[in-house]
Amino acid sequence: MFHLGTTELIIILVILVLLFGVGRISKIAGELGKGMNNFRNGLKGNEEPSDASEKKG
User: Fold this and answer.
1) CA torsion, points 18, 19, 24, 26, in degrees to nearest 10?
2) Which of 18, 20, 25, 55 is at a distance of 20 to 30 A from 48, taking alpha carbons?
3) What angle do the packed helices 22-44 and 6-20 form, to 10 degrees?
4) Distance between CA atoms of residues 50 and 32, nearest Å
5) What is the pLDDT of residue 10?
6) How many Å apart are CA 45 and CA 15, to the nearest integer?
């Protein structure tokens, strides 16, 4: 569908860094990773609480 080369990916990455900053991008990536892990655990049927829910309770 979309055929992005290395140059296009680098340009997109530079634009994202300029718009959001490095700290915010790393935070977003971390939250995205946690969300993906929770989604996978939900599909597998694991009912173990995540680290965030253990800290709250």
Assistant:
1) -60
2) 25
3) 110
4) 14
5) 93
6) 39
Q: Do 55 and 39 form a contact (C-beta atoms < 8 A)?
A: no
Q: What's CA 51's distance to the chain center, in Å?
A: 16
CA distances from 12 to 17, 22, 41, 54 (A): 9, 14, 31, 37
Q: What's the whole-model pTM score?
A: 0.51
Contact 16, 23 (CB under 8 A): no
Q: What is the pLDDT of residues 1-53, one digit of tens each?
A: 678 899 999 999 899 889 988 889 889 889 999 999 999 999 888 766 556 55
Token pair, residue 43, equals 């599909």
